Amino acid sequence: MTDDRSARPALDRIRVGSAPDSWGVWFPDDPRQVPWERFLDEVSEAGYTWIELGPYGYLPTDPARLTDEVGRRGLKVSAGTVFTSLHRGPSVWDSTWAHVSDVAELTRAMGARHLVVIPSFWRDDKTAEIIEDAELTTEQWGNLARGMERLGHEVRERYGLDIVVHPHADTHIDTREHVERFLDATDSGLVSLCLDTGHYAYCGGDSVRLIEDFGERIGYLHLKQVDPEILADVVKNGIPFGPAVQRGVMCEPPAGVPALEPVLTAAQRLGVDLFAIVEQDMYPCPPDRPLPIAVRTRRFLRSCGA
Questions:
Q1: Whole-number Å distance between alpha carbons of 58 and 54
Q2: Which 3 state secondary structure label does DSSP give 280?
Q3: CB 59 within 8 Å of CB 23
Q4: Residue 40 resides in a domain
Q5: Against a cut of 0.70, is the pTM above it?
Q6: Residue with the larger pLDDT of the pair 66 and 10
Q7: If DSSP codes are grouped into helix, strand and coil, which group holds residue 59?
Q8: Lowest mean pLDDT, pick from 3-12, 139-148, 190-199, 266-275
Q9: Mean pLDDT score of the chain, rounded to an integer?
């Protein structure tokens, strides 16, 4: 009898990592989050090599100190993360760039090449307050597209980084329809996607199909799954993303959807090197919960060939 795993093609173009999000970290400073030292210790213990910076200010922002802290744990940084509201037009550029430049400078100093760009929420992820309309106007779509192109150009010219825009629940880039509209409106040479399998499934999307249809625009992956039963209740009752996470809508693989092995196989077929960073939204969570999940998740991804 042969081991089915031996017949699977090695996913040699996929570089697996994890992120502070998988340790319940959503904010630079929050008493319900684990200290950054513990995150670094445990992500290394779980068997990961690559990490993201997470919310700017959670990990040390001094490049020399952070280089020492990650290096002695055998870790490397794949990306930084920024938050934007570029659909609001040119008036927000200066404040956006002040935030982006700080993160980009640290990201470059850590040897990473990507900035994950998360659009602003229309519904607050902590308070569930409705901030603005869930649908953009034609003018706002234009602002968003031109703003992201400008961001992609400036980040590449000044810092040598590529932006990867993250479709995300409770933002204006969420469903297949909105993702397609965004891709059609932006220059493929300046703007790529960070496909988050959990968020895309949360919003009704098919990750494998998106990879097959828009493979040239996929620059980065976040790996997570959703619990379909909890998601059905979230959709039925219009529950905001933050409370949905507290209900456990983002679950430990392989218990949820989408199945990650077909996603990784589709990504491998693109023939390019891609980061696949595990992010299981768990804010807030007990401090002893993340490590066992991270260990099991890393073992599961190895069973998939990653």
A1: 7
A2: coil
A3: no
A4: no
A5: yes
A6: 66
A7: coil
A8: 3-12
A9: 95
DSSP string covering 224-279: -EE-HHHHHHHHHHT--HHHHHHTT-EE-TTSSBS-HHHHHHHHHTT-S-EEEEE-
Backbone angles phi, psi at 288, to 5 degrees: -90, 0
Identify which of 254, 194, 246 has the alpha carbon closest to the alpha carbon of residue 224: 254
Tell which residue, 290, 218, 280, 213, has the closest CA to residue 252.
280
Q: Which amino acid makes up residue 301?
A: L
The answer on pLDDT for 135 being more than 60 is yes
If 0-12 CB within 10 Å is exposed, 13-18 middle and 19+ buried, where does residue 280 land?
buried
CATH code: domain of residue 284: 3.20.20.150
How many other C-beta atoms lie within 10 A of the C-beta of residue 133?
10
- Average pLDDT of the segment spanning 90-119: 98
CB 140 within 8 A of CB 171: no
CB 179 within 8 A of CB 210: yes
Written as one letter, the residue type at 44 is S
- Tens digits of per-residue pLDDT, 193-228? 999 999 999 999 999 999 999 999 999 999 999 999
Ordered DSSP codes for 143-155: HHHHHHHHHHHHH
Look up the domain containing 186 and give its range: 78-303
Q: Which residues contact 285 (CB under 8 A, 6 or more apart)?
A: 23, 24
Q: Does 1 score more than 50 pLDDT?
A: no
In a domain, 14, yes or no: no
- Cross-strand bridge partners of residue 119: 84
Q: Which of 96, 213, 101, 81 is nearest to 144 (CA)?
A: 96
Q: Is residue 49 part of a domain?
A: no
